Amino acid sequence: MEKATFGAGCFWGVEQAFREVHGVMSTQVGYAGGTVENPTYRQVCSHTTGHAEVVEVTYDPSIVTYEDLLSVFWSIHDPTTLNRQGPDIGDQYRSVIFYHTDEQRVAAETSRQREDASGKHSRPIVTQIEPAPRFWPAEDYHQQYFEKRGGGGCHLR
Q1: Which listed residue (4, 5, 7, 10) is catalytic?
Q2: Residue 112 neighbours by CB distance under 10 Å
Q3: pLDDT tens for residues 48-98?
Q4: Cβ-count burial of 150 within 10 angstroms (0-12 exposed, 13-18 middle, 19+ buried)?
Q5: 155 domain residue, yes or no
Q6: Which end of the chain is more exposed for a tag (fewer CB within 10 A), N or C?
């Protein structure tokens, strides 16, 4: 099993999109990329911690490739809006790929270049690609939110 970590707006919808991918064994929503240890949702939403809402994906690379996961990532959000996805505004909603290996870094950078050159977007891609920092799981009520509550207000393309 391998891990991949993506931030693409509200983590509820991002998690649901990845849970539907064959070869994804588990997902967990949480926070990464900030300065506060074990942050709460309220702290992250205060825009003082620097964390992004992210989904940590555990996948079987013999079934689904990292490149396939990157394709899902690009398809579910607008990578050209800085700190915003749909009605959700703030640095916690930034578009970010946190890589776990050098191979993931290369694949993410190549994928971003390909997506930027594709002509699909009228503005440049602002997605950040950074080494995976410590992942802090979100509160239980955020985990598999759509499955528990039948949907919600998250923006997905």
Answers
A1: 10
A2: 21
A3: 999 999 999 999 999 999 999 999 999 999 999 999 998 899 999 999 999
A4: exposed
A5: no
A6: N
Residue 81 placed within a domain: yes
Quote the domain boundaries for residue 45. 2-149
Q: How far is CA 99 from each of CA 55, 74, 126, rounded to the nearest angstrom?
A: 12, 15, 16
If one counts the domains in the chain, the total is 1
107, amino acid identity = A
Asked if 94 contacts 66 with a C-beta cutoff of 8 angstroms, the reply is no
pTM of the model: 0.94
Residue 154 lies in a domain: no
Is residue 10 part of the annotated active site? The answer reads yes
Please report, for the domain that includes residue 116, its CATH number: 3.30.1060.10
